[in-house]
Amino acid sequence: MIKFSVVIPTYNRAELLLETLDSILSQTYPVNEIIVIDDGSSDDTQAQVAALNHPLIRYIKQDNTGQNIARHNGVLKANYTWVALCDSDDLWTPDHIARLADLIEFYPSCDFVFSNFSEFGNSSRYLDKFASAPIHWQTSSFYQTQDDFRLYDGELFYQLLDFTPIFPSTLAFKKEKYIAYNAISANLKGQNLGAEDFYTTLMFAAKGILASDSKITAKIRKHDENHSGSNLKNMEGEILIIEEIYRQLNQDGINNIQFAKIEPSIQWRLNALAYHYFQNKDKANFNRVYHRLPFNFKLFFKKYALKWMA
Predict the structure, then answer these.
(1) Which residues are listed as membrane-spanning (predicted)?
(2) Do 63 and 165 belong together in one domain?
């Protein structure tokens, strides 16, 4: 029987955390432990969790360091082979862990699995995240498929650079591989990039074996407090992450990743940022990203238009 630790980083979300815990404790395939990493909450999170008095729940409070570090610390404290992640405002359907366990048993060589998800809340956009994938993504990176289950080949790494249907609350991985792959960046550690989990996903895609379940088994809450709600912040963070991933993979001796196939994903993000900063008359940030782009007549004229703007 596959055993799962669940890691939940949280910060001042006591009421929503209780909903999340209820969805985890209601799984048809029971998890073996739930680690709540309280990242310095000032609300009554500790009291609310203590009131549950549940033997599976381990509550750990730490100084505020950011969600990424809190999640990482929780993974390191996990006692079981597989670690499933869940954010403190998201929900699982009752069969989420059961289907991940089936997926792992179906593809025993995999070390990272993820499911499809829907969104709910004030700023939700997707009822079916996988269905929003571009056509080329849906047809180009599968090694094997069986009903809803898919095993991916090495092309997935490049596909994830432009479309990422993976969210922390949908995934699970082997703890030993997380550590072996250095799946959190020492150089980016602690930075509030807005897309920190992107690094972990890309590192597993470059070094590991990934499989997915196209059935929706997670519900991602989207509201004004979501860190991932800022597209601009995410895009800036993703550029740093992609560059750091390439540097780290080279350092680790992974030489099959081609920069020529990575660079376009950096360029389109820089281009989008340049247009955004132009629209907002943000000269400093426009110039910062402009000088990283190949020469472009449209941006060249926008640069000089900005120069004369009040």
Answers:
(1) none
(2) yes
